[in-house]
Design goal:
This protein is an all-alpha fold and 88 residues long. The chain has a single domain (7-87), classed as Methane Monooxygenase Hydroxylase, Chain G, domain 1, CATH 1.20.58. Helices cover 77% and strands 0% of the residues. The radius of gyration is 17 Å and the shape is elongated. The chain starts with 9 loop residues before the first helix and ends with a helix.
Length: 88
């Protein structure tokens, strides 16, 4: 299992906080009966933020696996590849 360094996750945390705010905005927009186009636009932005956070996490994990591995096809690298594909 790849354990990520929290100090390297600052950008990811910021993206997730932004997505959290966007999702809260979507909920408010629905409750207020706002226009469908505006709601979907905001929801799409939150989705992109979540995707980018996920890819950044996988990227950091892969870098960590590659720098710590002995060059063999380790179980951790295969696990990170599977995580990457789950986001695609």
């Amino acid at each position: 299992m790849v354990e990520l360094n929290p100090a390297e996750m600052g950008d990811v945390v910021n993206r997730l906080r932004r997505a959290q705010g966007q999702i809260g905005g979507v909920l408010r927009m629905i409750e207020e009966g706002r226009d469908c186009k505006d709601i979907v636009t905001q929801l799409a932005a939150a989705n992109r933020a979540l995707d980018r956070a996920g890819f950044a996490i996988v990227s950091t994990g892969l870098k960590q696996c590659l720098t710590e591995s002995d060059g063999t096809d380790s179980v951790e690298i295969k696990a990170m590849e599977k995580l990457f594909l789950s986001l695609a």
